[in-house]
Write a structure and sequence with these properties.
single chain, about 210 residues, alpha/beta, Rossmann fold, 7-stranded mixed β-sheet, 7 helices, 7 strands, globular
């Protein structure tokens, strides 16, 4: 098989197959429990980066006025339609990357990212955009998986990271989520690091609020 044919197959997988797999996996009840913990305090005019197929929508409270959703996947946008229609607030879906947020500075009360910072190619640029579009007193709510504090788990994460990226559209097992958020100039208002259910190399979770 030629290189062009292999690349075409990978593109088809990432564009059409992977979004459907993620739509199924991200709908697991155990993940929903974590989403609810993350989103309880979210309020006002919201930007959600890495919206996917809209699994966060049922967990937003009545304090949310509007969600502007950013995600590059056209298939995910289609899969999200039923959840968007059921939402009790307006949802605007923009099919674009997190590194490119086409809104005015200081617009949003809250920015939300769940299981997204692990995958964005230029995560530093995306976090810079998140800082830019937040109001001065705005908050960044995040729920991510990433690098463990346990050296033994870290070695396994590093060993399997390339495979994870290949199978999961660029998702990293070993990104230090706390580190990259602090590096972008945020201060932590709250942060919890713990293991969720599942293999520890992929279940080290970071849940927090940053300003």
């Amino acid at each position: 098989m030629s290189l062009d044919a292999k690349l075409s197959r990978m593109s088809f997988y990432e564009d059409h197959i992977l979004p459907r797999i993620l739509n199924f996996v991200m709908g697991f009840k155990v993940i929903g429990v974590e989403r609810q913990k993350c989103l309880t305090e979210v309020s006002g005019d919201i930007l959600e980066v890495g919206f996917g197929s809209g699994h966060n929508l049922p967990y937003y409270t009545n304090q949310v006025k509007k969600v502007t959703a950013i995600d590059p996947s056209i298939v995910s946008a289609k899969l999200a339609q039923t959840r968007i229609q059921r939402a009790g607030f307006p949802v605007e879906y923009l099919t674009m990357k997190g590194e490119e947020i086409p809104t005015d500075s200081g617009r949003f009360d809250s920015v939300v990212s769940t299981f997204t910072l692990c995958t964005i190619p230029d995560v530093d640029a995306a976090l810079g955009q998140i800082r830019r579009v937040l109001k001065p007193n705005g908050r960044f709510f995040f729920l991510e998986h990433g690098r463990s504090d346990d050296p033994r788990i870290q070695r396994r994460q590093d060993r399997w990271n390339a495979t994870q990226m290949f199978l999961c559209g660029g998702c990293h097992l070993n990104r230090n989520i706390e580190g990259i958020i602090r590096k972008a100039g945020f201060e932590m208002q709250s942060l919890e690091k713990y293991y969720g259910k599942g293999p520890r190399i992929s279940a080290c979770l970071y849940r927090g609020i940053a300003r």
